[in-house]
Design brief:
Order of helices and strands: HHEEE
Number of helices: 2
Distance between the termini: 23 Å
Strand content: 5-15%
Helix content: 40-55%
Number of strands: 3
Structural class: mainly alpha
Length: about 110
């Protein structure tokens, strides 16, 4: 499980790494704004990379309708093929529409 504490550890590790890169660039004689730019890029991109990595791991648990970079609002796909699917409470069949095509029951729950 990915916790808040682990995220903070990665965040401060990226901060320390970016400060080290900045000091290294300054020691090499490069202007300070080059080191600062690289340090800020690392400090911003590292949490984004961690988040993308965790979202790709969660995609395996949530199935095809879980949110992520390719999905739209509320996890529905942005190409229009998403929509609401229903799960029959009697036979556990996934379908679109009013009643279950397998058993004919109208007892259903929404599956986003």
């Amino acid at each position: 499980m990915y916790t808040y504490k682990k995220y903070l550890i990665y965040l401060f590790a990226s901060l320390a790494f970016s400060i080290g890169i900045q000091l290294l660039f300054t020691a090499m004689g490069l202007p300070s704004y080059v080191g600062l730019g690289v340090a800020l890029a690392i400090f911003i991109l590292m949490p984004l990379f961690i988040r993308r990595n965790q979202m790709s791991r969660m995609r395996g648990y949530g199935g095809e309708s879980s949110g992520g970079p390719g999905s739209g609002f509320f996890g529905m796909s942005s190409d229009g093929s998403g929509g609401v699917k229903y799960v029959c409470l009697t036979c556990n069949n996934k379908f679109k529409g009013g009643s279950c095509p397998r058993c004919g029951s109208k007892m259903k729950r929404a599956d986003f």
